[in-house]
Amino acid sequence: MSYFFQIVVSGIVVGSIYALAALGLVLVYKSSRVANFAHGQIIAAGAFITYFLTVTLAIPIFFSFLASMIITFFLAMSVERIFLRRLIGEPIISVIMVTIGLGSILDGLIYLTPFGSENFSFPTFLPHEPLSFGGVSISWTQLVGVIITFILIGGFSWFFKKSTVGISMRAVSDDQFASMSVGISVPKVFGLAWATAGLSAAAAGCIIGNITGLNFDTLHSFGIVVFPVIILGGLDSILGAVVAGIIMGLIQQFASGYLDGNFGLFGTGDVMPYIILLIILLFKPHGLFGIHEIERV
């Protein structure tokens, strides 16, 4: 039974990180109806900026974490302003192709640095001894990562429900033309959505890097892995991203824990998210919490 609960704890840890990483994709899609395929590279950039500030400039990791979120906030805003704002009104496929191109450019830039080809790890700042409860253990790094993740998700939820800017972003996601008619600047909202997505991506990258280590391939692959998460939860639902992240994390861990090594199967945890993706697209293409819009002809 302790093995079962250990898998549940591991699933919640992984799922909460998925939720935070998926949040950025949901924010961009809610405001502009665009899927950002460069999201994984922004996650990696946030993690490596934190590492550079912590190790090279000797800034305490807490302040490095906050600084990387701010830097990535403005980095993502600049990407939207320079490359994507010019494409407002263009076919969605054109915008998607630009995000794919941006991902390739960021890949190349990061590979030109030592961060693209080597493994790194953050300096240890938490106790090594894990916490144990009834045979179930969780490391301090995982526990702090989960706590920070849920604090950030709670902060984002409050921001979109209560703040004026957040309400404006929700209005634009519902109806751009009606939003413009009441004086909301749609281009500015698009920029803020990308910037906020960059901020959440940096936070996710830092947490992932502290738990798994800093490897570029591992970090930017999260940008692809979270696509099944947002499809499951609903492309335009923040609540869906959180719930689907936890569900996907649990499914992955149970698949790895009970199927790997049995029945001649290996690597089921890596494949399972995409199997879930296909099933959801077949039977519930709008996800668990997505909005099914009916357009009048």
Summing up helix and strand content along with how strands pair, one would put the structural category as mainly alpha
> In CATH's first tier, which class applies?
Mainly Alpha
Quote the beta fraction: under 5%
- Uncertain stretches of 5 or more adjacent residues: none
Rounded to the nearest angstrom, the radius of gyration is: 19 Å
Summarize the helix and strand pattern as letters: HHHHEEHHHHHHH
Total count of strands:
2
- CA-based shape: globular
Amino-to-carboxy terminus distance = 56 Å
Helical content, roughly?
Answer: over 70%
Named CATH topology: ABC transporter involved in vitamin B12 uptake, BtuC
Number of domains: 1
Instruction: Please state the second-level CATH architecture.
Output: Orthogonal Bundle
- Report the mean per-residue pLDDT as an integer: 83
Side-by-side strand order of the widest sheet? 1-2
Count up the helices.
11
Query: Mind summarizing the main beta sheet?
Result: 2 strands, antiparallel
